[in-house]
Amino acid sequence: MEEFMHHGCSDEVTELMEMLSKLHFKSLLSVHDAVAQTDYEPTLPPIPDDYVADEEDSVKIVSLVKTKEPFGATIKKDESTGAIVIARIMKGGAADKSGLIHEGDELMEVNGVSMEQRKPKEILSLLACSKGAVTFKIIPALYREEVSSQRKQLFVRALFDYNPEEDPAIPCKEAAVGFKRGDILQIVSLEDETWWQACHQGEGKSCPGLIPSQQLHERRVTLQRPRALFRPRTPKASDDAKVLEDVDYRAITGFHIAGLRRSFRLGRKGSVAREVARSRRWSTGLHSSIRPPTYIEVIPYHSEPTDRHKLVVLVGPSGVGVSELKKRLLISDPDCYAVTVPYTTRERKQQETDGVDYHFVPLHKFEEDILLHRFIEYGRYKGHYYGSSLDSVNRVLADSKVCLLDMHPSNIKCVYTAEYRPFVVFVKPPRIEELRLTRRRAKFICEGEDKNPVRTFTEEDFEEMIDTSESMEREYGHLFDKVLVNGDIAVAFRELKTAVLEIIEAEVQWIPTEWVRPSPTASRRSCSHLTGWI
């Protein structure tokens, strides 16, 4: 205003002088100057006078606000130098979001307390007592290229149970995620070849934790050699394998259910011989080598109103109760469940109905369908063929019913496709002590050559059942959606029925990615042994 006084009194100067003289305008300028002269940056603690830096950026001070959630980093002690270093940054945690702390950074101080000669557990106690902001003095690690965060979402179904509390190898139990077989996990990081980072599906906003990698779990299972390999059996398979037919269920229930006879199945001795032979082969029709069941990559499939009803496949060793469970499920709701009608080349008996008891077809037609791969399973008994056809499965599904199949797991590949989307249930026996209690008076039908066609289980039968079960799970476990232990038949049936109803009513079904596209090979990196979780 003093400057304007010497420039005359033109209309423009007069108007501007009047504006600058107003009280509100003067207050605005005063506040602007006060704000501009104020320093709002945080005041960092001074670096000690006796500290000599080799480089300008050799030390940095990081302050993170402490909340109820952990910072999301694991620490370890370098055995060669004794320094406390950041071993891993958990995706989605506070440390990851800040972008200021990285793997390999050395912790010099925490809230002004020196980390020299400290143990990781002492640091965890120090952090637990801290309130508000926690200040870290860090020597940064050498620059390393960050893995792109734009990685696609990856979901897997767990094929084994995992409890971190029972894992002596887990670097830090507090940083781990437990899960059950069948749980859907979202994999957040595959960078570590030993410990992946994951969270349960639907909990993407929560901080992920550590789970055993596929490589780690496979290595563990491989070291635990199954006892069947150390005690091989040499059952004698008859030249003409016998076929067993189940007792007519009409005698028990009061009505006849077609399609429940497993007449194309091999007899007990013949089946065991084939199963043991399969268990000794380290290759299958689906995979070139046996890999222990760990994880299978899955994607969500949203059911449509026009989708056909489900296919439920039951598998298990002979005598475990697969047929009984299938019968109980079928009888519980005949309007919902149905079974396939088997095919045969033998002559129709007087009391049998074509298309109800069996589909009776000529020999040349049956053999033609074999060549065209239209049978899921088939066998030969007394010169006649018996088999279960894909056409029978399609008829049941077209009738808007849930199709129940029981088969050997080696034949699942026939229906393990996006077209059928099977729900595969593996029925396994309990421990041999429970088998002795629950099956000691149970009877089953044996080979026709035996003097007593119906007999009770023997100790050899129990061991055989368990060995075959272990062999099946080891070789085909990656195909099983659910594992059901049949100790008590009533309890096992209730669990089976609940699981089947859930999969029928589910709007989203998690199906293997291989049904849609080949699974990509995940890149992995080496890891360090962890000892702390902050």
Automatic annotation (TrEMBL):
Gene3D superfamilies: 2.30.42.10, L27 domain, P-loop containing nucleotide triphosphate hydrolases, SH3 Domains. Belongs to the MAGUK family. It comes from the Eukaryota. Residues 151-221 form the SH3 domain. It comes from Knipowitschia caucasica (Caucasian dwarf goby). Residues 1-43 form the L27 domain. CDD domains: PDZ_MPP3-MPP4-MPP7-like, SH3_MPP. Residues 61-142 form the PDZ domain. The lineage of its organism: Eukaryota, Metazoa, Chordata, Craniata, Vertebrata. Keywords: SH3 domain. Pfam families: Guanylate_kin, L27, PDZ, SH3_1. InterPro entries: GK/Ca_channel_bsu, Guanylate_kin-like_dom, Guanylate_kinase_CS, L27_C, L27_dom, L27_dom_sf, MAGUK, P-loop_NTPase. Residues 309-501 form the Guanylate kinase-like domain. This is MAGUK p55 subfamily member 7-like.
